Give the backbone structure.
Amino acid sequence: MVLGSFVTVQSALVHRIGSAVATVVVTPPVPTATTYEVCAFILLTAVVLAAAVFDWRTQRIPNRLLGPAVLTGFLLAAVFGFITAGFTGMLTGLGQSGFAMLAGFVPLFLIFMAGALGGGDVKMMAAIGAIAANWEVVLGTAFYGFIAAALIAVVVMIRHRIVMRTFRRIANAALLAASKVKADLDTDTPRIPLAVGFALGAIISGIEHLLHVRLPWN
């Protein structure tokens, strides 16, 4: 009777140990952010916050901020790529940075050509891509950025009590566009600092990338 109880306890113990070992082996480790990703996020945060402040105060994003930001993004990707995998890693890092920069620049440049964006917003998105070196971060920045800009626009309209006037202007512009007549829009409408929205979007998307959050476009 004692021997049977001992065998039962031993079998249960072996089963639990086997389950624990299987869990450790099968369960993938939680990915952590690399030193490069952390450095890139710090640089990205500093650049987008500075761009947002410039856009909010002066309605301009200076090239003296965005130009060095792009170059620093490429330099960061090249240095960490070389440290990780030598010359091949450096080329890979430069390629990823360049591709992400184009992913941010080209779509917004087309919108800029249509007259719906400022040149500074386009260059800001290009800088975000060069620093992040990840097209998913760029896509997330645009997604969250436009949502944030829309919310800011609603707040501005409510604050200035121009909600109905704005909707009438949008409706009139849509009708004129449908009839292929250029809309003569007023210039007294408060401007929405899109760089503020992009800054929020870049920070949110960057944090998601650091935490390896899986999104539909990942």
Q: What stands out?
A: Residues 70 and 127 are 5 Å apart (CA to CA). The first helix runs from residue 2 to 26.
